[in-house]
Amino acid sequence: MASIAIYSVKGGVGKTTFAVNLAWCAATISRRKTLLWDLDASNGSGFLLGIDPKKKRTAKSVFSADREPKKLIQSSQYANLDLLPADESIRTLGRQFDRIGKKKRLAKLADQLTKEYDRIIFDCPPVLNEVSTQVMRAADLVIVPLPPSPLSTRAFEQVVDEVRGSGKSHPPILPVLSMIDMRRTLHREAREANRKWPVIPAASAIERCAVECKPVGEFAPRSPAARGFAQLWTAIERKLAKK
Ligand SMILES: Nc1ncnc2c1ncn2[C@@H]1O[C@H](COP(=O)(O)OP(=O)(O)OP(=O)(O)O)[C@@H](O)[C@H]1O
Ligand SMILES: [Mg+2]
Prior knowledge:
By secondary structure, this protein is of the alpha/beta class. It has 11 helices and 8 strands. Adenosine-5'-triphosphate binds next to helix 1, strand 7 and helix 9.
């Protein structure tokens, strides 16, 4: 089993979009048993997968009451793809981790799922706190979506610091240029300056994910956006194989 965190300290950069589309690629293209683990209270991942939030199933109980995560998992309409949903209670997760006092609580919970899943993908909230620290300890690889702007470069530097601070053997980081529009000079320059980084284009097909409540590969499989996520997923698998 390998776990991949989609993370940035900055909001609205495409984390949830990446998490859902990459989880779909893992399950559908690579046929891996995949769990999408939503750590953000807004429950965007479940929405984009077309899964209704179930009010009683709280992510809180996974962390505080020693409930087995397995009992809270919901299946999606796609083969090999399940969701561990979040809800309001996850907002206090940082405090709960403090109270439990276990440095690797999330990593241990993920380890319990090793037999059931080949890949776990964490959709992270844009925070720098105990939750992000726990995610960095649990993840084998950290993906950082970066729209081309000086602010996201700054956010990237903060992520690098956070990952390095998470322990001696910190996970590798893969920055990905997100929402790139090659008609714009600044975007072209960002692309030129970082030739090795994978790219996800700015695309109306990606915006439509929230209307269709489906990953882009389901309704526009030949679009540049769907191809971008498939290529990114291949790059991720390659990086995991090197570990
Ligand atoms: N490549 C893209 N092209 C066009 N629109 C995009 C792209 N990626 C994301 N978006 C849009 O940008 C918005 C923010 O995306 P998303 O919710 O995935 O970001 P986020 O980082 O998870 O945000 P938050 O920090 O609030 O959780 C959404 O409306 C989404 O449809
Ligand atoms: Mg999000």
